[in-house]
Specification:
This protein is an alpha+beta fold. It is built from seven helices and eight strands; from the N terminus they run αββββββαββααααα.
């Protein structure tokens, strides 16, 4: 982002602090946000009416999460965005972000590419849950996300990998890993 683009965006951002477990965006919301992670970690999670949750992705420092696709499709947000740890964000309402993007086409192009990449990663994760066994899911996570190893609470990592915390612990002991 150029200095001029940053100069236009910075006054629109609101810095916010969240505690572990706080929901920044709720599944089903029609008010949408663009969230940039400054410190800490977020998760994107879906839940069914019975409260069973599936973690779709994590976002840490210098990453973002967004409800942009739902905004463009004019649908409610199909997932929640929740603080995994204490989090500091810079965020803005989706209408403000979309207006900014419309005035900065090169930023919009890079952003939309990033959104497509995130959506592809979520789809790949979902497929992985169905096609790989437990050791394979853990190995893939360690290979694809070494920067997150040791930062995600074990309960959250187990949920992301569709394992029980006990199974994750046994796998890590057997594999001699500290992920």
């Amino acid at each position: 982002m150029s200095a001029a683009q940053w100069g236009a965006l910075e006054p629109l951002l609101v810095v916010a602090d969240y505690r572990k477990g706080d929901r920044l965006v709720r599944q089903g919301d029609e008010e949408m946000e663009q969230v940039f992670v400054l410190d800490g970690m977020l998760k994107r999670v879906v839940s069914n009416p019975q409260g069973r949750e599936m973690i779709l992705r994590f976002a840490a420092e210098n990453e973002m999460d967004t409800s942009y696709a739902a905004w463009r499709l004019r649908t409610p947000v199909p997932y929640s965005i929740v603080a995994v740890t204490k989090v500091r964000t810079a965020e803005l309402p989706m209408p403000t972000w979309v207006d900014f993007l419309e005035h900065h086409p090169e930023v919009k192009s890079r952003f939309e590419y990033a959104v497509m990449k995130l959506m592809s990663e979520v789809m790949t994760h979902t497929i992985t849950l169905h096609l790989l066994d437990a050791p394979g899911r853990l190995a893939r996570f360690q290979r694809k996300h070494p920067e997150l190893a040791g930062r995600i609470p074990k309960k959250e990592l187990a949920a992301y990998l569709n394992l029980t915390p006990e199974t994750l612990s046994r796998l890590k002991q057997r594999l001699g890993n500290s992920a």
